[in-house]
Amino acid sequence: MKMKKLTAVLMTAAMAASMMAGCGSTAPEAPAAQAPAKTETSAAEEAPATEEAPATEEAPAGPVEITVTTTFAGEDSNAQNYKNAVAAWEAETGNTVSDTSATSDETFKTRIITDFETGSEPDVLFFFNGADANDFVNAGKVVSIDDIRAEFPEFASNMNDDLIAASPADGVKYAVPVNGYWEAMFVNTTVLDAAGVSMPGADYTWDQFLEDCQKIKDAGYAPIAAALGNIPHYWWEFAIFNQQTPDNHLNIPGAADDAVGSQWVAGLEDIKTLYEKGYFPDNTLSATDDETFAMFTDGKAAFLLDGSWKVGGIVGSCQSDPEDPSTLDADKLAGFDVTYFPGKGNRKTTDMIGGLSMGYYITTKAWEDPDKKAAAVSFVEYMTSDEVVPLFAQHTASALKNAPAVDESQFNALQVKAMSMMSGVTSLTGAVQDLFNGDCRVSTFDGMPEIVTGSVSAADAVQEGIDVYKDTLE
Description:
By secondary structure, this protein is α/β, with parallel strands linked by helices. 36% of the residues lie in helices and 11% in strands. The chain has helices at residues 8-16, 43-46, 79-93, 106-117, 134-138, 145-151, 189-195, 206-218, 233-241, 259-276, 289-297, 310-317, 330-333, 364-367, 373-383, 389-393, 413-422, 448-453, 458-473, and strands spanning 65-69, 96-99, 124-128, 176-177, 181-188, 222-224, 301-307, 336-339, 351-355, 358-362, 427-429. The strands form 2 sheets. Strands 5, 6, 7, 8, 9 and 11 form a 6-stranded mixed β-sheet that branches. Helix 7 (189-195) crosses helix 8, helix 9 crosses helix 10 (259-276) and helix 10 (259-276) packs across helix 19. The radius of gyration is 24 Å and the shape is globular. The model is unreliable at 1-58 (pLDDT under 50).
């Protein structure tokens, strides 16, 4: 079936209406930006006016260096796009970037918070716009988009403001988004074929999933590639979502035994059931996420629940040189697919987790530095321009008002499959874990091994997290 060519704006607009279709483009190298062509002027035109117009901005004395931290690192599919764009901005402006980017995980988040607390924050930060940013937002360590626009009126003017998320700390918008995300279930179809299991579709149910997991286990494979002792995040999110609907998924429970709290407990107990049935790897409680990901790409496990950023890692695993797309083994890549997480209850299988959860912040530290202020604004404007954003958004989403048309022929096979999946999405809902502060998640994230082995009840773990959450509100 021929897929429609949609822009990222249409994709995100449909997302807001809970009926979404999406696509993007592959990630060609970001072209170096070209300065406007100079025109010849006469001597009279070049002569200074008798009265000088007042300067609106004080330009820095010369090139400056700004420190930038992002999550475009490691196996993130946009890591190279980021490097290309930084190089292009440096060439255009003469400024330089001291890059301290790192792969996003809980350690990275803690590092960022610590940097702000110790005065070591970067000038520009690409980071989450949910509760993870509350500490430095409340401390006044970042500058709002409105305050930046007061001095630089065109800042982020190419963005649809309705799609820029406000901070839950104060309802103010700080971060300019680049690309969105989705979370879904990747599939090693070679393993499915060996186990006699069909590729799941848009009507795939939880009960069918359990039956398929048993067949896969009986065939000698691990049904689910997941490191519950390291990264249980995605299973936590979808298992809870499966007890709910998009309308109430972002509600935080008041207690483990209230309506929402009971749904959280039921979700965690579903994960415990999967563990007891042996559907996770034998070493799921001690393995790292990298190890279980390798199981999936090496054909030892069937299902991998992860985010849209994992497309790059899977494609890279099919290249003899992970850094060189020309070394792609197309036949190997053909053995991977992506589909919806199996539905249960009132959640439709095609209701997905996703959104625009990250963006570029300009820190107060840079804003108050007369040499760095303009450079920081220039950098964010470049990285969020109509030309650069589509390179990052690819097959996901953006907040651009006027996203350029895309060329579907430039997608690799897995990206094409992701586009096909996204064309059937009925809704995108943000991750509730982004509203549940890091410390609140310890009892159920770090404590997942205890929950699934039964040494701690799901209800007690959920209640502990809720108690910590309530403390953060005081």
